[in-house]
Amino acid sequence: MMMEDELMSEATTAVPPTPRVLLVSAGASHSVALLTGKVVCSWGRGEDGQLGLGDTDDRLLPTKLSALDGQDIVSVTCGADHTIARSESGREVYSWGWGDFGRLGHGDYSDLLIPHPIRAFQGLRIKQIACGDSHCLAVTIEKEVLSWGRNQNGQLGLGTTEDAPLPQKIQTFQGVPVKMVAAGAEHSVSITEDGDLYGWGWGRYGNLGLGDRNDRLIPEKVTVDGNKMVMVACGWRHTISVSSSGGIYTHGWGKYGQLGHGDFEDNLVPRKIQALSNKFISQVSGGWRHSMALTSNGLLFGWGWNKFGQIGVGDNFDRSSPVQVNFPHDQKIVQISCGWRHNIAVTDRENVYSWGRGANGQLGHGETIDRNVPVIIDALSFDGSPGQHIESAKAYPVSGKSSVSLSDIYAVVPDEIASGHAAHSDMGDRLDASVPESDVVTQ
To answer: Distance between CA atoms of 227 and 264, rounded to whole angstroms?
Structure first.
């Protein structure tokens, strides 16, 4: 029989419960999760500071982002190489990572290695953020839309092609209450409270859904079979939307089967995925060249480019029609997020799985190998291996920017940074050895 002091000792050394993951988001090659207790952690590629951990190192395991401790974070969103977090009140929005084109919203083009509040949002309350490759969108509590970042194809919806390093209000939506926004590589979409779908920006592949391949500098309404739309997501150059009756529609670039219609053709207007017509879709997400859809009863389907196993079905063959992704013990999925070439899913058993490209540790498994089936992230999962824990990085306060600019670390002039980053991000990160150069269009 244990003595009282032995019982107390055992209680104090007991393993704390695994934090529950509330939200996940995947970028080009990095991942972020929000846990109970308002804890944010990140992992994967860190070259541009997108992990927010104060350095440019990759992380192979989920690592606590200490700079946001006590900041009351309720949402995190990954862009390609940057990240944004929002506080519960919506009054504080933080950004960090690659700053070129003004995508961080601070009025300049500096990279930031730790989170910094976007001062331009003072006095506003933000309820949703969407990040594309190099631009961002925000919806306010009042259902207005702001945009900032790169704008070479009009993806900011401001009527120009000039970049905006500070958030600007999209005038088209004045008096038109917006429910949600989504951002692709160079295009943007929104859904209004009335169920109308809008598209703007780069349209070469029909990704705006407006029946042609032209760019739009301001938002334009899309017709979707007369249906009211309730949800929308963007892949790199394709768009996925969901109607009020749970039907799923796609349009845009289809070369890798990412539209899910059984072929590899572009679609210039939204087209319903017939293979999922008997399912009620509750969540969608788009990657670089693949797509994922979650049904109301927790089944996950994927399709499109599968070079790195990002479809999650055990092989590396592309799929032009949806295929079901299976999880151990027939777990139901409650959340899905597509990165460029990897995915993260949360199950009803409070487990987190990832699969696809793993070269920078973005899968969170402590290694740099690709996975073509979902693999559990131990430190974030209820059923994870015992003894796993979330790593902790050095604590940095949310403060001024000067001490964490990459220009200080590398001690090179701004022009050299801009050209160097353009080279590695626009081409190097997007191009794998087997991706034809003709597939990458820089305008």
So the answer is: 25
